Amino acid sequence: MDKAAKRIRVSELLNTTYVGQTVRVCGWVRTFRNDRFLAVNDGSTIQNLQLVVEKDSTPSEVLKQLHTGAAVEAVGSLVESQGGGQSTELQVQELRVLGGADPEEFPIQMKRHSLEFLREKAHLRFRTNTFGAVFRVRHVLQYAVHSFFHERGFYQLHTPIITGSDAEGAGEMFRVTTLDLENLPRTESGNVDVQQDFFGKEANLTVSGQLEAELGAMALGQVYTFGPTFRAENSNTSRHLAEFWMIEPEIAFADLKDDMALAEDCLKFVLSYALKHSAEDLEFLEKREIEAEKGLPQTDRHEHPLRTRLQAVIDAPFTHLTYTEAIDLLRQSKPYKKKKFKFPVEWGVDLQSEHERWLVESHVGGPVIVTDYPAGIKAFYMRANDDGQTVAAMDVLVPGIGEIIGGSQREERLDVLKKKCAEFDIPEEHVWWYLETRKFGTAPHCGFGMGFERLVMYVTGMTNIRDVIPFPRTPLNAEF
Ligand code: 4AD
Ligand code: MG
After folding, report:
1. pTM of the model
2. What is the spatial distance between Cα 355 and Cα 402, in angstroms, rounded to a whole number?
3. Strands (E), 206-326
4. Residue 279 C-alpha to ligand 2 middle, in angstroms?
5. Is residue 214 within 8 Å of residue 252, measured between CB atoms?
6. How far is residue 73's CA from residue 96's CA, in Å, rounded to a whole number?
7. 172: Cβ below 6 Å to ligand 1?
8. Shortest-distance atom of ligand 1 to CA 249
9. Residue 133 above 90 pLDDT?
10. pLDDT at 170 over 90
11. Measured in angstroms, how far is the CA atom of residue 325 from the centroid of ligand 2?
C-alpha cells in the first residue's frame, strides 16, 4: 500500500481540487455493484465516494470481502466521473480490507430499517445515512449555540454535575452515593446516615445548572451553561430523556422582555446557522421526512417541507400570549368544546402537551411564547408579578415539539424569595448561598433553559427524542 499518498476525506474529494492526483481514501463500504463500483462513506459527508475497482488487478480475497459495512483503504487517482450522479471518482490502484463485515451477521444492510430496530443497534446506527446526518447536524447546532453566546459576549460557565440542590424542586433526582446499598449505615433514629457518605451529605445528579449560573451572572454579567442534566421522571414519552443536554443562559440587569428577546434571537440564530452549514444533511432529512409521512393521512403530514418550515420561523416574529390568554383561547377551541382534550383546561392547571400543540399548530401556526404562569405551577425562584398570582415566567412552544425553552425573570428581592422558600418547603440552609446573592448587590436578572435534544429534533424533523442523542437514557434503558 502506497502510504506516501495523502489520506483525504471524502468531503474534499467530491470537488475537483484533487483531480489528477494520487490520494488515499479510508472508509466503510456502503455498496458494491457490478463487481466494479464500490461506494465508500467515511462520515465526513452524507455522500459516498465511488471507487472504480479493476477486477483483474484486485486479489480475489479482497474482492470476496467487499460487503456492506467492511472498512477499506484505497490508493488511486482521482478523476472526473464518467457516469452521472457524482462529480469525481477514484480509479483504484491498490485496495485493502482493514476489517470485514460478514453479510450474514452485519445488521445494517442497505435496505430501509425502522428507527425502532436501529435504536436496538445504537452502536452501529451511525453507519446509516439518517443517523450520520442527525449527528452531524447535532454537532453543527452545538457549535452554533457556542458561537451565538460567544459573539454576544457571554462566558460559558461549567456548573457542577453532582450537586446537593434540587433547582426545579420537582424531586426527580438521581442519587449519587458511595454507600454500600447492601449495608447502609444508620443513625440512631434509623435513617440512612448520610454523614458517612462520600460528601458527608446527600448528593444528586443535577437537574439544571441554573442556580449556580445565577451566581456567575451576578458578577460576570452574562453567562451560559451547556451541560448534561438528569431527571428521574418516569415519563416514557417521545420528548423526555433521563439524561439530556441543556443550554442555560443567565443575564444580569435584565427583565422578562430581555429574556424573551434573547430566546427568540438564539433560536433564530441557530436555525439559520444550521440551514447554512448543514444544507446537505438537512436536504436529506427533509426528503426522509417526506418519505416517512407518505403512508400517513393528509392531516398528519407536514404542510411544508422541513427547511421551508425552519426558514418561516426565522422570518416571522414569535407570537406572545399570557397564560391567562392561552387558557381563554383553549376554552374557546373546538377540541375543548368537543371534549377532545384528555387533560383539564382551567386557570391554575399546567398546560399539557396537547394544549401546547393546539396553540402552536392549530391556533398560531408557529412558535408562541407563553408568559406569566400561575405561581403555584412554577419553580420557587421565579419573580412574583404585582398581581400576586402569577410569576414572570416564559415558555417557548414550537410546532411538533411543544415546549423547547423554559425561562423566567428571577426573584431578586430577598424578603420575597425567603417567603417563597418557606411556601415551597425549601430550608434556607440548603440554599444559603443562593440567598446571599440577594443580600449582597442584588439586581434584576433572568435566564432560560433550552433542551438541546428538543432543538435537534426540531431542526432534523426527527419525531422521537431517542433518535437525536447517540445513546438515549430512558426508564429501563441504559444499554451501551
Ligand atoms: O423547563 P425546564 O425544567 O427549566 C429549567 O430547568 C430551568 N432551570 C431553566 C432555566 O431557566 N435556566 O427545562 C428547560 C428545557 C425544557 O424547555 C425542555 O426543552 C428541556 O429543558 N427538558 C427536557 N428535555 C428532554 N428530556 C427531559 N426530561 C426534559 N426536561 C426538560
Ligand atoms: Mg419547563
Report:
1. 0.97
2. 9
3. 222-230, 243-252, 319-322
4. 31
5. no
6. 5
7. no
8. 12
9. yes
10. no
11. 19
